[in-house]
Amino acid sequence: MVTRADIGVIGGSGFYSLLDDAEEIELSTPYGPPSDTVTVGRIGSRSVAFIPRHGRDHRFPPHRIPYRANLWALRSLGVRQVLAPSAVGSLKAEYGPGALVIPDQLVDRTSGRAQTYYDANGAVHVSFADPYCPSGRAVAVRTAQADGWQTVDGGTLVVIEGPRFSTRAESQWYASNGWSIVGMTGFPEAILARELALCYTSISLVTDHDAGVEAGEGVTHDEVLAFFAQNVTRMRTLVSETVQALPEERPCPCGSALDGIKLPFDLP
């Protein structure tokens, strides 16, 4: 059995079948338990840890996900690179359902979520100008293009608090700023990964046009889940191939994010 991993995947329950030689591990963290038991196994020659973001019964809404526990648990298992597949709405007419966006920027429109590990015993300021791993992004883009996805290399993900969807006015405002896609879970995942010096790559599947992009009744939760379910096998293949294509030695700056910073505690 594999009890450590160097790559983490945070996603939906449809991704369990990714892993061979899998073992479930109960973990505790200083921030409480993660969303669910962590499944550790292999994809080809790579050791991988999987966490269902919302719990395997989807019990955690986006604003209640234990983000800090999830990322801490992955690092404690040895993970240094994280892939984060998720469903998003499109803010651009040309990115329809089925498009795959690998964003390079992020806008936080959440409120009240715990978004740092360093909230006591001294200030710690971590650079977040470029929130995603450039190496992981490049691998994900190449892999998606080779698999025939309509792939968008770059763009801005705006993360809203949820669990409600956007009003038309909000959606139109996001689009007017030039932002590309909208979701509910990409933050604080990305900054927490950076605060742990992890590589973090978002793989965003467009399931719908957001409310302000097209006329109609607006998106529903059932429609999002149904479209993602239709594409989960293809997404599993993409994530599996991306995992195997990630570099074993990290050539990116993510691992040095904490260099020169005095931390108030030791990282796992």
UniProtKB/TrEMBL annotation:
SUPFAM superfamilies: Purine and uridine phosphorylases. Phosphate binds at S13, R53, H54, S86, A87, T185. Keywords: Glycosyltransferase, Purine salvage, Transferase. Purine nucleoside phosphorylase involved in purine salvage. GO terms for cellular component: cytosol. Residues 6-243 form the Nucleoside phosphorylase domain. This is Purine nucleoside phosphorylase. It catalyses: a purine D-ribonucleoside + phosphate = a purine nucleobase + alpha-D-ribose 1-phosphate. Belongs to the PNP/MTAP phosphorylase family. MTAP subfamily.
